[in-house]
Every structure is written in C-alpha cells, then in structure tokens.
C-alpha cells in the first residue's frame, strides 16, 4: 500500500476525515466497476495549483469530463505561462485597504494569499482576440476551452511556459480529448475582454463563443452516449455555484424535459464545501435533497465533506491515483 493511502486508512476514522476516505474509496469503486467520473469545480482551485494532482488524474483516465468556472479555466493557463511571476502574501490577513491599493496600482490582483500579475493576460490576449475575431466573422463558434487549445497549439508556444506542462490540467484535458464546460464564461477576465472587444468594434459580434445552452446540449449528448452504453457516471463537486448546478441538472433535463425517462441518475455524488446546511443555499444543500430533483437515486453513494478543498481534493486525488489497479 502506498504512502497516502496508508496514511488515510490509518488515521481518517471519523467525521470529515472518514467522509473523505469513503469518498475516495467510492471513486475507486466506480472506476473499478467500469464507470466514469465527471468533475465540477468552483472556487479558485487553479490558482491553488490543483493542476499538480488533477492533471495526473486526467492523464491516468480517472476524470472524464469537467465543468468549471471560467476563472478556473483561464487561471490554469495564466499560471502555466506566468506562475513564476505570481507574488505570495502569507500575511494577507493583515493587509490594510491602503496595502490593497498599492497592490492594485502595481498591477497585482489578489486571490487570498496569491497575487496574479495583470501582465499574464497579455501572454495570450493578442492570439486569442484574433481567434475570437475570426470565429465571430465566420459564424463558427467554439467552446471557450477550444480557443485555449488553439493557443496551446501555436508552434513554439511551449517555450513560453514558466511551469512544467505536467502541472496544467487544461493541457492534460486537451491531450486526453475530454470536454470542459464553462457555464457563465462571461464571468472571467477573458470573458470581459471579449465583451470589451465587441463594444470597441474590434470583434464583430458575440457569436464567436458557444453559449451556455449550447454547452448544456453538448453535455447532454456526452451523458446520453454513456447512458446508452450502460456506463455509470459519477459526479464529484468542488464548491458550489454554477459549475455544479449547471452540469448536475443535465440528468433531470433529460428525464423531465427531453422525456427520456429511462435516463440513469448520477451513479455517485461527492461534494467538498465549507457551506453548512442552510435555508435555500445550493452550496449548503445536503446531497439527499438532490433526490427530489431527479439528480440522484435513493441508493446513490453520497458524500458531503465540510472542509477546505485545497487540502482535501489533492488527498482524494492522490488516494485514487495510488489505487492498486492504476
């Protein structure tokens, strides 16, 4: 037995620790039974460098599709191109408003203890604006991640990477040809830039990037293909919000709105979040609430881990990667 698996099985006996271990074991059971895993990811996980473990999960066939916030999509690439220029502030809790102004005026955008330099956007902006313009002009929309894939295909672009390619989960997804869905893409730096370019008259229209409904239709086809092949699909959720609710709703949509009543429910569900159960909060909704929405069956394995995803997710990923069957 390898080190992380041995440690978790020895020490993670109760409370959130036990739930973490059970969720990891459930992931392995799903894969061992011929299933696949869908990952929904909110929060600033790319800035937290989740790619170190997630990229390995993707390349080893442990993750098969992803829904994420647009910030997670782009920040993985920003980190790949400029990670050595990020500024870490261990004392971030002590910053005054004046300190924040100084960071702002020096071109540093803070995410908790990590400052992303505004210059990182320039690494890809010229390339991607040209790609958007051509797509909008031709009326040939693409998914947001497909434009980033095109950037990664530019000859010699790898010479500009500041971090090892092995640490980029977006690059891993490209290599493994797995889809990345980004509902609410406009809520991102690149989404803001696209909108501004349209307003400035540099991009002719908004038709260069596929909209959320088009992404949902593609996800429905992805899920239905696996349902038709009797491949169970699990759902692992980091945080809450649109990346999770958008994607998990594909099952009730197929059942209730497409009238495909034989569509199987998600075969596994786990969520890492720090939101406690509360009134009306999606992030704080207990997994069994999803049964009423035709998302999960009464016997679906369900796990709710109330903890910090930047700590727990790498542990679970490493446990799954150290599965003896891998």
UniProtKB/TrEMBL annotation:
Keywords: NAD. One of its GO terms (cellular component) is cytoplasm. GO terms for molecular function: deoxyhypusine synthase activity. InterPro entries: Deoxyhypusine_synthase (IPR002773), Deoxyhypusine_synthase_sf (IPR036982), DHS-like_NAD/FAD-binding_dom (IPR029035). It comes from the Bacteria. The keyword Transmembrane helix does not apply. Belongs to the deoxyhypusine synthase family. This is Deoxyhypusine synthase-like protein. It comes from Desulfovibrio ferrophilus.
């Amino acid at each position: 037995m390898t080190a992380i698996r041995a440690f978790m099985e020895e020490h993670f006996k109760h409370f959130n620790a036990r739930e973490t271990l059970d969720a990891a074991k459930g992931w392995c059971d799903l894969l061992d039974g011929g299933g696949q895993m869908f990952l929904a990811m909110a929060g600033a996980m790319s800035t937290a460098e989740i790619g170190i473990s997630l990229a390995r999960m993707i390349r080893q066939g442990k993750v098969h599709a992803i829904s994420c916030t647009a910030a997670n999509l782009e920040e993985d690439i920003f980190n790949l191109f400029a990670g050595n220029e990020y500024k870490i502030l261990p004392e971030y809790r002590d910053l005054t408003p004046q300190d924040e102004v100084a960071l702002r005026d020096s071109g540093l955008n803070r995410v908790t203890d990590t400052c992303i330099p505004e210059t990182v956007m320039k690494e890809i902006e010229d390339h991607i604006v040209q790609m958007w313009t051509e797509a909008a002009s031709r009326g040939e929309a693409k998914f947001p991640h497909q434009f980033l894939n095109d950037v990664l295909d530019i000859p010699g672009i790898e010479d500009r990477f500041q971090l090892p390619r092995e640490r980029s989960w977006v690059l891993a997804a490209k290599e493994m040809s797995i889809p990345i869905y980004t509902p609410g893409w406009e809520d991102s730096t690149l989404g803001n830039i696209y909108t501004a370019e349209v307003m400035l008259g540099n991009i002719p229209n908004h038709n260069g990037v596929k909209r959320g409904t088009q992404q949902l239709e593609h996800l429905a086809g992805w899920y239905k293909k696996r349902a038709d092949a009797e491949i169970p699909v699990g759902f692992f959720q980091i945080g809450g919000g649109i990346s999770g609710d958008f994607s998990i709703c594909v099952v009730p949509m197929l059942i209730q709105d497409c009238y495909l009543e034989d569509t199987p429910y998600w075969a596994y569900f786990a969520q890492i979040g720090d939101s406690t159960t509360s009134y009306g909060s999606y992030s704080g909704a207990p997994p069994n609430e999803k049964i009423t929405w035709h998302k999960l069956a009464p016997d679906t394995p369900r796990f709710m881990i109330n903890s910090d995803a930047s700590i727990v997710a790498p542990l679970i990923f490493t446990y799954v990667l150290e599965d003896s069957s891998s």
